[in-house]
Design a protein that fits this description.
Order of helices and strands: EEHEEEHEE
Distance between the termini: 40 Å
Mean pLDDT: 92
Strand content: 25-35%
Strand order of the largest sheet: 4-3-2-1-5
Radius of gyration: 15 Å
Structural class: mainly beta
Oligomer: single chain
Largest sheet: 5 strands, antiparallel
Low-confidence stretches: none
Number of strands: 7
Number of helices: 2
Length: 111
């Protein structure tokens, strides 16, 4: 059996929004295929459960009430074109300047 590795559609630092739910965030990591727990996946109703063989994104996410970390399949993300920075308190820990639809990566001091 051959596994086809897909190229991620979205990039680290890019601001995205969920296709169905009212939240958005900035991508801080990408898994080429599903890499979370079975419990997490099975908690999603079967009719909405994403396929495993696609990139999954780690987001510093926000909605109207709070900030949190989200794990979202590529099929459920869209580019966020609002031009509004993400308010998550950890954004400044990982990223530098905001450039309209993405953040520049902060330079690492671990050289």
């Amino acid at each position: 059996m051959t596994t086809v590795q897909r190229v991620a559609r979205f990039a680290i630092g890019q601001v995205v929004k969920h296709r169905l739910y009212p939240f958005r965030g900035v991508i801080f990591d990408v898994d080429p295929v599903f890499s979370n727990t079975e419990e997490w996946l099975n908690a999603i109703p079967e009719a909405m459960r994403p396929h495993r063989d696609q990139p999954f994104y780690h987001l510093l996410a926000e909605n109207a009430e709070s900030s949190y970390v989200a794990y979202v399949s590529e099929q459920n993300l869209l580019p966020d074109t609002s031009g509004v920075p993400v308010r998550h308190p950890r954004v400044a820990d990982l990223f530098g300047a905001f450039r309209g639809d993405h953040y520049l990566r902060r330079k690492s001091a671990d050289h």
